[in-house]
Structure formats: structure tokens, C-alpha cells
Design brief:
This protein has 82 residues and is an alpha+beta fold. The chain is built from two helices and two strands; from the N terminus they run αβαβ. A two-stranded parallel ribbon has the order 1-2. α2 links the parallel β1 and β2. The radius of gyration is 12 Å and the shape is globular.
Length: 82
């Protein structure tokens, strides 16, 4: 099974708040995995999503069995992310 959620404020997901931090995106992803009772999962992130996936793996390693990072920047402070 593959689940491909939109992040808050992206795609079809509405969000009226102002917290678009990496920590908030990771908390959303972890909450989704928890809510669906799926952990541990193979977590795949592309581009900015790879930063989110990496953060989930760091803060909630119990939820992640495998981590796949596609087009992953090394750090958040690079020109492409800014």
C-alpha cells in the first residue's frame, strides 16, 4: 500500500495557520502514520519531502523501518530550499 499525503498548505491540503516549519511537517507525517496504525513504515521523501522524512526518522525512529531519500539536499540552508 502506498499513501501519498499533501503537506499542510500544499496540493489539496488547506491550512490557515502560519507554522510551515520542518518540525511541523514531520509531526504531521508521524501523526498520520500513528493514526493509521502503520508503523514501522518504508518512508519515502522527494526533495523537500526528503527533509521531512529524515526528520521523522530522527525524532520517531520507532515509526520508520526503511528510509528512501530522492533528490535530497544535504541541509535546509541551501539556495534551493530558501
Amino acid at each position: 500500500r502506498c499513501i501519498a499525503p499533501d503537506q499542510r498548505g500544499h496540493g489539496m491540503s488547506a491550512y490557515a495557520g502560519d507554522n510551515f516549519s520542518l518540525g511541523a511537517f514531520a509531526a504531521d507525517a508521524a501523526a498520520l502514520i500513528d493514526r493509521l496504525g502503520l508503523g514501522p513504515v518504508a518512508l519515502v521523501g522527494h526533495s523537500m519531502g526528503s527533509l521531512v522524512a529524515r526528520k521523522v526518522a530522527l525524532v520517531r525512529p520507532d515509526l520508520v523501518d526503511r528510509l528512501v531519500l530522492v533528490g535530497a539536499p544535504l541541509r535546509v540552508g541551501n539556495a534551493a530550499v530558501r
